[in-house]
Structures
1.
Amino acid sequence: MFRRAFGRASRRQFVKGSLAVAAAVPLWPQIGRAQERQVNVYNWDTYIGPNTLDEFSAATGIDVRYDLYADNAEMFARFREGNPGYDVIVPTNDFAQRMILAEMIQPIDKSRIPNFSNIDPRFQDTVFDPDRQHTVPYFWGTIGIGYRKSAVSPPPQSWGVIFDRSEAYADRISWLSEPADLIHPAMKYLGHSINTDDPAKINEAVELLIRAKENIRTIAGDNGQDLLLSGEVDLALEYNGDVLQVMEEDDDLSYATPQEGTILWEDSMAIPTGAPHPEAAHDFINYILQADVHAAIAEYVYYALPNAAARQLMSQDYLSNPAIFPPEAVLDRSEVALYLGEEVNRLMNEGMTRVRAA
Amino acid sequence: MESWKRNPLIFLLTSLPAAFWLLVFFLIPLAFVWVLSFGEVAGIVDIAITWTLSNYARALDPLYLGILWQSLWIAALTTVICLVVGFPLAMGISFAPSRWKSLLLLLIILPFWTNLLIRTYALIAVLRRNGYVNDTLAWFWSLADRALAAIGLGGVLPDFVPLDLLYNHGAVIYGLVYVHLPFMVLPLYAALERMDKSYVEASLDLGAGQLRTLFSVTVPLAMPGIVSGIIITFIPALGTFLTPILLGGPDSQMIGNIIERQFKSANDWPFGAALSFLLMYVTFGALALRAAFVSRRRDAEAL
């Protein structure tokens, strides 16, 4: 048994993240002289171990400049007009794919990353980046339902509990606000693949959400876990790591992955095109994949490790936690979101606007 | 005051920084956004400027007009409440003894020293189900319960049910009023301070009551301040996006939220630009109304 750091926060916290970004010192694009002993990392808020960066610098002599973002869209928007000066970024599956397609991410030289062999073979290849030519897995997780055990019985088994306009939990439910985070689970509930560009299926999910909306307390900008903790809602559509964070503070909270299957997300490290220090970026990525380093980060962020060697160093408490590693049966029915083009993205966003306007 | 015509060179020199500022930080970026609004998404990061009007056509879809309408009435209601609350406040400060004035003004400006985000989070702590308002009500409730028990009526009162104060339009408007009140009070105070107080005395001496004096003398004389206050409260309230995200319910979205989504999640900058300009036209409309009001007033004074 090990004790997790107190006050561990999770990466997907919209507002706190924005604040951190606002407070971060702006990174000037390329300060003239090339400094190969430096690496500029742009990562999610609270998504690294408390000592990881210092230990990396001590071990390699490379300085780390570290900036934070709160969601993929924010990171993507900053890269649209060219790399603002970063060497390592951590996009999620569909965003990684989109950035590869737009040539915003450069190929990774695997010969410089010997620790890649630590990665679980299951994660060494992936649909969104065939052969892992551009990305290296960092952590993965799920979207599911966080709930208050004393108020919700039986424990949620199906997405229906938050999408069926159940009178029993009227005004006791919160949803996520990013369009895909809400529409994808609704599509799973309807039995559709989330990776479809069929407007009819997306619309069906939007209509389902519009009908269910009446009994929803709020569509939270990613602070559903705080609403659970403060008793504002009893059921929250949320990321597993966010719910794990509040489960630590309140024993009455738990997390369920519905049996219809859920959304799996995979964050990967990547080197954006035009990175000023590509050598140091490779060194950084290789260092993170070192078993003890990756395990130390996992102890802090408490997301699922794709690193088989690092998993061996973790406690049973972590490895057998169903909120981190969902049952195989659920995993089999779950999907990783792919990038399906700007038109699908537009449909999802307009769908979200319609849900809120209804 | 001397006319600028006597010293055109000095006028030119002193206005240079302002002109530079206006050009570099306002007009040029605005021109970029304006051009962008006639573009089309041509790829993941590519935008083709085709001078299409399709973004504006889409912005005029009932879906988006409905959201604009909702934003307009939320901003309007916020402005009215700010005016009703702010006017007595500004009058109080303006009629206070002069040694108190600067302290009272400081209290009005004090919230600006804290970040808007933190102030809005603080409101969540006040309004949530186990927040300060509900805790206070629950305390009074239990007090009443004990008092009833003392006179032999124990158990008459049902259990206290916390009020759902957050996550609805009411919470959004409350948050907006809280944030924008200083914007209303300051121009009102400036107008009332400039006002010759002897008019009020004259009105009272000549037999008009307090209310009549207020509405026939004070309010008309403070009208320029009222109009300025309305404008600088209404415009930022209309474009707000943070307050509806944090305090609003499932249907509390304002046009600012839609615009933000176009630049981030939707990755549709041309449409976001068109929506921004739609919002700007509404703002221009409000400013034109003000200009019309001022010129009519001037005409009336000239007569």
Note: Chain B is about 75% helix and 0% strand.
2.
Amino acid sequence: MDLSDRSSSLTTAPIGEESPLEVHDLTVAYRKKPVLWGVDLRAPAGKLIGILGPNGAGKSTLIKACMGLLPASAGWVKVFGKPINQSLLRVGYVPQRESVDWDFPVNVMDVVLMGRYGKLGLFRRPTAADRSCARDCLERVKMLPFADRQISNLSGGQQQRVFLARALAQESDLYFMDEPFAGVDAATETAIIELLHELRHQGKTLFVVHHDLPTARNYFDWLLLLNMRVVAFGPTEHVFTYDLLQKTYGGRLTILSEVAEAVRVKEA
Amino acid sequence: MSFIPHFSVHQVFIAPWTTDISSYGWIMLMTFLVGAACGLVGNYLILRRMALMGDAISHSVLPGIVVAFLVTGSRGTVPMFAGAVAAAVLTTVLIEVIHRHSVIKQDAAIGIAFSSLFALGVILIAVFADTVDLDQDCVLNGELPLIAVSPPMTLAGMTLGPPAVVRMGCVLFFSCGLILLFYKELLLSSFDPALASAMGLRSGWIHQLLMIWLSITVVSAFEAVGSILVIAMLILPGATAALISDRLVVRLGWSLVHAALSAVLGLHLSIGLDCSPSGAAVVAGSFLFGVAWVFGPQDGLVSRWWSRKEGRTETLV
């Protein structure tokens, strides 16, 4: 793990400051079948980064492995220059909305307060300051009036906003978000993207798994094109090209026509 | 002559609270303590979809008890308890190993682990300990009525009460303590284990903590009240509370209420029908579940019917 390891294949980030996320030769296998293969990245700070790729490309696997939720078969991950278990409090996470049971007996406020648990540590209860922070976070996603609402009585878009408020309550510097736009209404989508831009302006780095090609170009500063390996990682204007997208999505016809459409819009 | 034994209002409803309180009081208290302790841990089992784990553990403690007997040669409480808890923890580890390292899902893994351990216990008894008496009725229904006549436990000159009741009281106290200390951790790891891990909370440790807690609760209750009451009370109080409230703290409170009502109603039922107090408490607990199902304030059949009739439907924004 010495410095000479950081060969020229590691992509750009301002030299001199610690990269929020540095991944070297990361390989993750599921039942002996590799899902991610030799991923190298060095992310710049203060960017909104979209992760694009076809189903099964390993997008969720990558962010889970970066957070230490899945064991790596090879390679390493550093968050702000340290192994992930020493940087946990600087990392926020928005899991896929379907990953939890929305009939769980908690209300909106309880869920947002969960974002404070990491900083609270063992044996300490949320304080008045934590509650006031949680209320601020709910206000920022325009969900404060729903603070006492049972979570099963929320629409999909509202559930997603609650998850975002919880991530805000984590007050992290690096965020991983797994499909925050999946199944939300247009108003929520706009609200979320505004919030992500605001976070980026505060210097936070955000990795967002995204599915929709046409919007990807407008939403993100940087793109990570992933299909088991890193196909491309860089500023959107360099990476969002027909060739690279075709390389990422392979011969999938429907996607390819979508790509063609998206690129045409871009060039028009 | 009838199927219903002779019925006396005084004997069934008044005597247990007056002249016979010294014996029936302990039975009611014990039934409540078991229901309360099992109900608290049961709430978490239900939330984590592991409700049948208690069923599994109450079977798979058998080989642990037999091995403890073979090793120590005694039927004392301490070795039996240690053997049973060890077997219970082994069961949960075995279930975890099977379902992590194979394509077998958790429910099937539970079925494999407890049935094979139970069978192992049966064989161990047949081969090595044929003389140990294992009363089937006792396993199912326990020896609740014997509690009141067992010699009371004394501590520093103070008479505390029957040992089983004291032990169960300690387990309930311990359960409340765990919930108070680890409320956040239990909540987050049950709701969103991925975020819990991302925050550095070892979900695996919380799972093991829950399993050890469950094992101690089940084993402590098992000997005195039998398996029926334990298995039922792991699920009924939590399930009933789930029909009444949708906040976890409130549910925990309602499951204690359920345990208390089941203990009282069950005792009257068992005197009236002259049957096992454990079985009667389960019948009473199931009845309370039914009442909550029909009349529950949020999701009960009556309130559903009422809101349909009124044409009131919740609209989501």
Note: The two ends of chain B are 64 Å apart (CA to CA).
3.
Amino acid sequence: MNKQYLLLSAILILAGIGLMLTPKKSAVKELNPEQLLLAVDDPSRFLSTDLITERIIKKDPSLLLIDVRPAEQYKVFSLQGAVNIPLSLLFSEEAKTLLGQEGKEKVFFSNDDILADQAWQICKRIKMNDIFVMKGGVNFWFNTIMKDNPPNVTDDSKAQDLYTFRKAARQYFMGNTNQSQGNSSESEGKKEGVNVVKKTTSKSSGGGC
Amino acid sequence: MTGPLIPMGYIPEAWNNVIAVLLGAGFGFTLEASGFSSSRKIMGTFYGYDFVVLRVFFTAAITALVGLMYFDYLGWADFSMMYVLPTYLTAAIVGGIIMGMGFAMGGYCPGTSFCAIAIGKIDALVFTTGLLIGIFAFSEAFPLVEKIYESGNLGSIKVSDSLGISDGVFTFILIIVALGMFFGATLVERKVKKVEY
């Protein structure tokens, strides 16, 4: 056999032995503790219920609402267009595909902030970007958007404008009605099935010959 | 581009397509220089008179793998930033059989057929026409085959993870397997009658 081939083979085998002896790196790349602490301390991850409501009404295509509550609660009521990924299924293949979508701002929400913030911290820890939490969760959303809370006459114009917006939003979700108390009818929370977008190949090279 | 330089921000996103074209040109040149624009040479792998396809592709694979592993170890590249195509097992098996049949019948794979067209091979032109018809038929019939296309999703898995061994051990095993195949291929070539082309 050609000596050059033998030499190249020997080099490859030595390189392979060298790789076997190198220390194994952790398979999961995590955000280092300092960065995670800074991120947790930054309140910009919280988006207000009013902002989310506005984006739902405008049908913002970059918004991906993720309901991290158990499936039973999601079936009873959820925000329009939200998909359900219970916290325990956050690392399922379907959830990974959904969360891996580029160009989408993933907004977690639960009944309050707790479950949603846990989901955010888990995802942030594995260096996921474009993730947010809806401040106050579904309960706060319902109390501010669906219930009529008129401002005092002495409140400033900003509060008046906010009230007008919430009133309009309420009409959008409930239909054209002037009921003062929101009852969680089916029309409020029309849910869509889990819209799993498979095979996102934005970074794919195609490969092969 | 799946490399780590753009995701890590070293090269602007706008260069993506430019780099893809340059890499494609380099890849095409290497295919042609290796003789892959000849369907007879490629068919040699199936008939046992020429294993250059096996040697070139396996050498490329293990060289790239060893290089990337050392780059990762030295901190020059981040292996975890590499995009790993998700494995759709059923689709891969069905697609592999269809592509293998086409490969064996036509003597080209998609890349080498375009390479052969570039130097004026008529058989490659016929092959590529069939390839384009196949792409069109697949696109039109996609709703019928969608379930197969999306079935068996195992995610972005690696063989080393599935086997529960480290990347280094897997690389070493692959090197030994590749060298063993090269040696075996040489023995087969000696026994099979040489074909002139």
Note: Chain B has nine helices and two strands.
4.
Amino acid sequence: MNVITVDGLSKTYDQGTTQVNALKDVSFNINQGEFVAVVGASGSGKSTLLHMLGGLDKPSGGYVHIDGEDLYALKEKERAVFRRRKIGFIFQAYNLIPVLNVEENIHLPLLLDHRQPDKAYINDLIHTLGLHERRRHLPSELSGGQQQRVAIGRALAYRPAIVLADEPTGNLDSANGREVIELLKLAVRQYHQTVIVITHDMNIASEADRVLHLQDGKLLNDTQSLGRDL
Amino acid sequence: MRHYGGMAARYLKQQRKRTILTIVGIVLSVALISALGTMGQTLKDNLILNTEYESGSFYFGYEKPTSELYETLSQHLLVDRLGIYRTGEETSLANSLSVQVDAVDPEGFKLLPIHLHEGRLPSAANELAVEQWILDRLPGNPKLGDSVSLNGPEDQPIEYRIVGLLNNEKKSQVEGVSRAYTFGNPADIAIDAKTILFLTLKPGVNISAQIKEFAKLNESLFTNDNLLTLMGESGDNRTNTALALIFGTLIGLVVLSTVAVIYNAFHIAVLERIRQFGLLRTLGASPGQIRNLVFREATVLSAIGVPLGLFIGWYGLEFALWLMTQAGLKIMMMETFRLTFHWWIIAGSFAIGFVAVYLAAWLPARKASSVSPVEAAKGAGSIVRESYRRLRLPSPLGLAGIEGRMAANNIRRNRTKFRITTFSIVISITLFIVFHYFTQQTLNMTTTTNENDRIAFQYSRMVQPDKNGMRPPISEWVPAEWMTQVAAMPGVYGVYSSYYNHLVVPAVVPNEKINPDIAGQTSLQFNPSETERRHRPASEVQSLVILYDDNRLKEAVKYVQSGTADPEALAAEDQVVLIQTIKPHLRNDKKAILPLTRYKVGDKLTLHMNPDDSNAPKLHEVTVAGILTQSPFDATYHESMLTIIVGKATYDKLLADDPEKYFPELYPNVPTGFDVAMADGADPEPVRLKLQEIVRTNPGSRLVDIAENQKETRNFNVQMKIFVYVFLFVIGVIGSLNIINTIQTNLLLRRREIGLLQAVGMTMGQIRRMATAEGLWFGVIGSVWGILLGFGLCYFLYKQISNFQGIPFEFPWGASLIACGTALLVGLFSVQGPLRKMEKANLLERLREEA
């Protein structure tokens, strides 16, 4: 079942007198429960694609449907609510709220929706992420790997349809990076979520179900991962 | 945390320093507005009380009422109090003195400026209150409680019991007619041409509008203008509008500065965190939720800051007053010097504080909610794009090396921050300049002070010839030792000779020396002079030539505008001191203070000593040794004449010009009396007894005893001055704290950036120089704009004040320089504290700090 449909997506930025085409007519579908890697050189449009999928930025043309909803037909506020409920973000720089502790950072998307967290699920999540002993700590008291695990917890707290991760291991050593990828894979397996990861790391790409290769804003190829092929 | 809104409190708690800085900003502003409100209101209350004391508390009255009018008024719904005064009979006493007994009803006693010194006011038709000074001249030399027989209607004597003594009035003593009041029963007092009615209206009634209606009842209506003007209820709408504009400007300025300071503190605190708001957007927070978060912070901050500000505003003022008392400004009447508590000021400051915080939060909240989540998601660093502006003109700071260039760039880098920081400083300086101007003008208008304020007794003597037509020479009338003895008494500030007569002669003034505004604005006209020998057109300007003894000249030194008033300098022949500023009536019915002529020190001034004889004019040339701003004694300004002060040497020479006209009996050059000035708070009783003794033992003596009034006037003047200085002190302190807070906030919020500069090799010394240059430069820019804005507003206020009294516009340069100098010093020193802290803090920690 298609959870994401991207059709003819393009994005053009004005930079002074010149125009930069960050994305050019990109189209693809992603099924629920897929673990997708987006690869490409710097400036190939990976982050722009991720922002479009997450409803953070408006495309210049084309459509993005998530769970059957035309993302950019929604109003600003509706899109914020949609993002809160359907999309989880993980950033390279973790981007945790420094004044909230681990548990509160994970709860945050639910609190923004005026909902009380499902304690059993959040507990399970915190245990799965290995953060149960750190649940009352502030982000500044955690290591980079731990902070990224909190970010994963926050992204999964609302059980979103899709999780978008922008270089989630970029700031981590290989052991911690490995751990993060395992957790994301676990999310796919355990909670049947769709995960899209932007990465430079071909090892991570090799673990994905699919790899979307971008070059100069175009989708160069859409392949089943090597790991899967083998 | 059960609600996302809990994040606001978390932020405030975790970012303790920022929170404290913001709260300090709010506290200062609310303290400023409540302190100024309290001071302003207390000032007004004080002025009204003083005016009620001097002119009575009635709003208006009728000079020629009828009994029908009285009936109408006593039943009128809008009338609150109605007092009756009826002129009575006069009884002649010895020494050409007299006493006049007027009848006043109980309400009249409350509404008129009748001030009891001792005893009580009359409450029956046979009771009397008289002025103190006349008591021992009344028939039978009665005391308080004794009876006295005075003329009644149709020459029937009436026996009165003296139940009260009134404060001495200068006017009645000079005229020799004492005021005395008996009880007038409103039920049977006659309402006729001798009667005057006084009244007030019920609270809440629009007085100025109603006066027109009441004038229709009887055309003899007159108003208590001084009081009504202060109450903003003058019949002259121009006055009311001018008052509203003046106070509107002042209040507006204070409110603006309050909003500016709070906005400044809050805006910076939000801007610095804007990236975090952007992150919340990526997590699905709606713009409304972000705004909500900012407003929650605003609520918490104002809930702490506003009440604290009110508290500090009130007790800060109390403290300032206490400090000034300790500094030696304690005066006798200090116990009556109380701040008046007004709920509307507290409530108004409270409301303004909250509104200012929300207003200050509104723009940053909008900015935070509209921040692009993409930019926030992109990673670390400020997502507020700093609009770097290349300076078109090289900044003078560039001369201070790399540190100066860095400072210049830092200052201009973020336009918003630059504007709010500068604005904050500008408003502090402007506030000081404008309030300095306003308070000084108020002081000048309400307390026209000169040395006369201190004069409590005026003694004079005119010895009449005896049966044989003999009398002692004038030089023996007032022996010098009397003055020496009185001067040596405790509490005496000074004793000044007074002379029987002044010379009034025309001065021959070349037309170009006459201020053209005189012809333009007033109806004063001068006869052309036919005596001028140099064929220049000249006019005869009437001049008052007054002889001052050395003691008076020493006091005159305080009023020197240029040149000198030193007695030794004036001992030389033909040296004079000139007062060329006058206060004439303008054509528009207002009074104005204007220079009549434009003489300078060293100029020659020609006096026409025999104006009656134009065939053989006797001209006497004198030299202007000094120019005074106003008259040190008597009326501060003459209405139309030049005032020329001379020492004895010059005076004698002038008299010698026409010995026939200026003969010694009419123009004695020896004292025929003296004035006694008392020190503030001194007890005048021993001096009074001494002078009364002189009066008793020396025929022809006359004593004007105004010690009571003098003390009250003087106290009022001193109180007004204290008010003004406390006022300015409070503004100065709060303005300085505001500048400190602004500059320090600006610097503290750049800790990470300064850490980075250090990391790339800038030494702490260089950073210190950079930050110092920034602080100084903010002071310079703030000063320039502050003076410009201050000048504009002062001029605007001047235009409004001119509606009450014409005054020359004098920009308070001194105050401006003080304000700017303080701003520079404050700018310089306020960067030092945060820098020292940064020096001690760990560089790595600062680098790790969230931007």
Note: The domain at 33-59+76-229 of chain A is CATH 3.40.50.300 (Rossmann fold).
